[in-house]
Amino acid sequence: MSYCPRCGVKLPDDEDVRFCPNCGAPITHLKPREIKVWQIDRRRRIMVFLLVFIVCISATIAGVISHVDPKQAHEIVKEVNKLGEVTSSTRMGIPLIFGNNLMHTLIMFVPIVGPFWGLFVLYNTGTAYAAYAILYKASPLVLFSSAFILPFTWMEFISYALAISESLWITYALLKRNIKRELVLAAIMIAVCNILLLFGALIEAAIISSFPS
User: Helices 32-64 & 113-135, crossing angle to 10 degrees?
Assistant: First the structure.
């Protein structure tokens, strides 16, 4: 027994029904095997995403706990503060944050190269936390953990994990010579990352501008 996805009316038991007799909506019939394959594929993608998300956090933590020379820490903090001043003092704050994060994210979508680039960027992000911890005599892990209080941190890490996991799926599709469907999914993931990073940039710019100069 099936029902129309648009109006909810009960459909005839005939499997050849292509349109709803009540509202005319097209009816798509999925065989049990097709439904099962789709469910397995969705579960695999969720598992890969979660695994990549954990790897992204781990790569950042590796940078957080790395040894940073005090002189190097001062230079890192100086550069980050300079970027923060530009972001808060001009109208280009949101485009700068969004553009920078989007550039790195798009590179992470590239097969094979993307995941390595992503881990490199995240490791360097961790070293920035380590530099701040040295100068302000704070625990680097506590400093990094506190960043997850802010929503844009979650948005950025989710975007990076989506990009890297999709890079892995594109590589897998290339090996299987079934790239067309994966490119469509990649386009959807890019759109999702764009939305996440844009909202993240809006929130981050608002927080930076709220601090006194």
Answer: 40
Helix or strand holding residue 17 (H, E): none
Q: What is the pLDDT along the chain (213 residues), one digit of tens a residue?
A: 466 666 666 767 655 666 777 777 676 654 555 445 555 678 899 999 999 999 999 999 999 999 988 888 898 888 887 776 666 665 667 888 899 999 999 999 999 999 999 999 999 999 999 999 998 889 999 999 999 999 999 999 999 999 999 999 999 999 988 888 889 999 999 999 999 999 999 998 888 776 555
Distance, in Å, from the CA atom of 20 to the CA atom of 29, rounded to the nearest integer, reads 12
For residue 176, give both structure tokens: 């299987």
- Is residue 148 classed as helix, strand or coil in its secondary structure? helix
Answer whether 28's CB lies under 8 Å from 18's CB: no
Q: How many residues does the chain have?
A: 213
Contact 153, 147 (CB under 8 A): yes
Side chain identity, residue 206: A
User: Which single residue is written with the structure tokens 């897998």?
Assistant: 172
* Helices (H), ranges, the chain: 32-64, 70-89, 93-108, 113-135, 140-146, 151-176, 179-210
Contacts of 73 by beta carbon, 8 Å cutoff, 6+ apart: 130, 131, 132, 134, 135
- Return the residue matching tokens 């590239």: 110
